[in-house]
Amino acid sequence: MVTFLLEVGTEELPASFVDSALEQWRSRIFTSLNDSFLSSESIELYGTPRRLAVVVKGLPTQQPDREEEVKGPSAQAAFKEGKPTKAAEGFARSRNVEVSAFEIRSTDKGEFVFVTQKVAGRPTAEILKELIPQWIFGLEGKRFMRWGDGDLRFPRPIRWLVTLLDDAVLPITLVNGSESFTSDRLSQGHRVLHPAPLLIPHAAAYVACLKAASVEVDPALRAATIIEQVQTTARTVGGYASISPSLLEEVRDLVEFPSAVIGQFDPEFLELPTEVIITEMESHQRYFPVLKAEGSSELLPYFITISNGDPAKATVISAGNERVIRARLSDGKYFFDLDRKQPLESYLPRLDKVTFQEDLGSVRDKVDRILALSRLIADQLQVTASEKDIIERSALLCKADLVTQWWASSLSFKV
Fold this sequence. Notes:
This protein has helices spanning 15-35, 75-78, 86-95, 124-137, 206-212, 219-235, 245-252, 274-285, 314-339, 363-381, 385-397, 405-413; strands at residues 2-10, 42-48, 51-59, 66-74, 79-80, 83-84, 103-107, 110-119, 158-165, 168-169, 173-176, 179-182, 186-188, 197-199, 240-241, 259-264, 288-291, 299-307, 355-357, 361-362. The chain is an alpha+beta fold.
């Protein structure tokens, strides 16, 4: 039994693609190995912004020998007056057997010729050479790109390829126009903390080698590390970090060596609605907000970022993040205060100038339809007059924020 390693090294991949690619490989690699009569003890998938990798343990060195049944022409077409026809002779040549080896069997569609052959197992290395390009370029996703003068397509340019069967390199060559590169045992560590090339001596040593080069290749372990570091850091300022699952998933695939960095913003910004501050932090900056306590909705004037750089530079990184969040919250506060100088109803006329859908009119037309439906439902439910007023006011104002300064600014700030 052998261990196989494939690592595809790239320029920084989109975070959303890393998780998607590993999920595709999870089913595709298992299925293609089984279809090739290659069993395995385990298939371990790894991914970071700069690499996708799979380690397959317990592979046989070659396929097992097997018997294969091949269906040929119908018996009626294969024999005329007891003699083989050209169809029978052609099928025999294609399978490299004598006509005497034919078996005639009944099927749902009549009698057909069958041949049972012994097939010698092929070497695993030979099969993997065929499967690897299919695994790499069979991945699907958004916004694939070409690079150089070739036709290869991938979310980002491929820069290195590692293919090992135990301690031996399994040579694979990828050609991209005038450029080509052949796989070897050289990987890359962390871009900042370990910039030198990294030699992988054995497929089974992959995870340990990358960890020694400041790269945690296991997404689950990176996520667990981020959670632990973020909460530990939040406790240093007497708070509790709010960790959105979607933000955690994104940040996990933006870093190879997570390092929590705390930052602070001016307490005056706490006058803004909590939702505004959290939106600026999570959606725009990918920061984790810090609450006063678990379950609380009150924010502390702190945030936590996950750096992919040198932990020794945490002070510099924090200062840069503080400048960015200060600018964002200042803009948010300006537009929020500006919008509050007039009632929300005053924005309704502007909805007439915003097209909802060509055949359905403006957003104001949509609001009028929502208002009519809400009145109809309120009448059917026989709500009180005060409740009906609240329902109608909610329906009337539900889209007014779309034309506020805050909404426009928040869209333009998004990365």
